[in-house]
Amino acid sequence: MERPVRSSPQVDPNQASPTGFLGPVSADAALSKLAAAQPAVLRHADSSSGLQQHEQQQHGSHAGPAKHVAGQPFEKRSLVLSPAEIYAEIVHHGAVKATFPWHKLALLAIAAGCYCGFGFTLCLIVGGNAPKQWLEDFPGLFSLLFGAVGEWLEQQQQQQEQQQQQQPVRPLRRFPFSFTIILLCGAELYTSMCAYMMAAWWERKVTMRTCLRMWALSWLWNFVGCAIFVGLMYASGLYHHKDWYIKLLAVKKVSYSWVATLVRGIFANWLVCVATWQANAAQDLTGKAVAIWLPISAFAMLGFEHCIANQFLIPMGIALGAPVSARQFVVLNLIPATIGNWIGGAICMATVYAWVYGSPPQQLAAWWEQRRHRHGLQSDAVAVVTEPNNRGKGGKP
């Protein structure tokens, strides 16, 4: 015997549904609450769902993609966001970061400084201990190994042993991972903070005073994290008999002119913030890793100046005996690199994309119209005031 099929009741959208916790709730209101409660990825999974019908009722069936509001996070429709959606995510994250209490920002920034130390130590200990002759004969190949992968055989002796045993040299499989850890684990780096906060400022989500506070505190706590990691790394003795390259780099980084270091700092954080942009575009772990690897490896291979990485590198070189003074470190590297990093993140990335996908063009147009309107009113007022005077001069006494 077949079981009778129970038909679902027909719900009139104009009628109220059964009373909930807060009284009668309409069907449209319940549907809106359901949409807000669902994860973003599931919100657009089924185009025939009631939620999609509700959106079509609100925006029209042929309205096309909804316009985004700068500063509001986008609903994730695919594994890669569009450029406009990336900018909206950056603005949203910048506004959220501005609400962090001081202890949260301090701990996350200290962790970011330590993560930079981990990444640079991997490059310096493993990739930086390739044969010295490679640096002289094949500088491009040496930079590729150091920046893109950061891994090679620790000593030439191991390579010779493998060749004698007729074993293949193990493949390169590592890449600069410090920025990957920072983005995935949620640590706060000064260089990416430049882009986050500037984008939020352009959209009027934060004040310039808040931006300055976030930049100063993140830079300071990054320095504290790097200093802690320098002390721990020195105590570990990991650089024992493996310090030739870090000393060379420490001396090299204070040998450039002030302007050259400034420009290298611009390029460095430009690429770092490109990695930040692309990592926000990717919605899965693999996509984020690839998005970070490309620009970060380019920045490391080209030898640009990253102020937070140098907060670890140069003090570590000084601790190991590099002939660099504290004045040289601060004046010739840290100050110009910090300023250049700010320009690269806040201007070259955040400001450019704010004027492409954000509200500054509309703000400028509104300001210009208001100025023209005010100027027109003033011109009319001047004409009204001067007209009686002219009439009095030309009229009868």
Can you put this structure into words, describing what you see?
By secondary structure, the chain is mostly helical. It has a domain at 88-126 and 174-360: Glycerol uptake facilitator protein. The chain is 69% helix and 0% strand. The protein has 17 helices and no strands. It has helices at residues 27-37, 40-43, 50-59, 83-97, 102-125, 132-137, 139-149, 156-164, 178-185, 190-202, 208-236, 244-253, 258-281, 285-302, 307-319, 326-357, 360-394. The radius of gyration is 29 Å and the shape is globular. 37% of the residues are buried. Mean pLDDT is 75; it is low at 5-66 and 147-175.
Core attributes:
single chain, 397 residues, mainly alpha, Glycerol uptake facilitator protein, 69% helix
